[in-house]
Amino acid sequence: MAMSFDSYMKDMVKPMREDLTRLGITELLTPEQVNEAMEKSKDGTMLLVINSVCGCAAGQCRPGVAKALQNDTLPTYTYTVFAGQEKDATAKAREYLAPYPPSSPSIALFKDGELAHFIQRHQIEDRSADMIAGDLIGAFNQYCK
User: Fold this and answer.
1) pLDDT tens digits, 52-75
2) Which family is this protein grouped under (predicted)?
């Protein structure tokens, strides 16, 4: 019995999605959902995680986000898009990250609809989850009060 590529990928990335959704982070699956989330974020703060299948997403990004979300001060909204999976939603999310080039994984914090803090892949892949969490906690404490 042959399995379709799409079915295989859905099964493959399911635990990678759950690393974030089990934390209460909402997945954005369409460009329309991204636009709605950005509209909501104009009143408050929003964390947007660009998820990925790579090793630095698994070893540093997702665990760093999980640790940061244990902080007392948190963003109003938390969302994620999955690069390479929901391609249209990810492309739409990246429009809001200009002038930064596409980067996966990456982590963005918006305040009142404006990009306030951005962690790109090159700032994730050579740092520990604790360092990424510390970076995010500092941003949360600065922008989410």
Assistant:
1) 999 999 999 999 999 999 999 999
2) Belongs to the bacilliredoxin family.
Provide the token pair at 113: 């609809």
Query: In whole angstroms, what is the distance from residue 66 CA to residue 93 CA?
Result: 21
The pTM score is 0.94
Q: pLDDT tens digits, residue range 7-42?
A: 888 888 999 999 999 999 999 999 999 999 999 999
Residues 6+ apart with CB under 8 A from 16: 51, 53, 57, 58, 62, 82
Structure tokens at 17: 């999605």
| Token couple for 69 | 């979300």
E-state strands within 14-113: 26-27, 45-51, 77-82, 106-111
SS3 15: helix
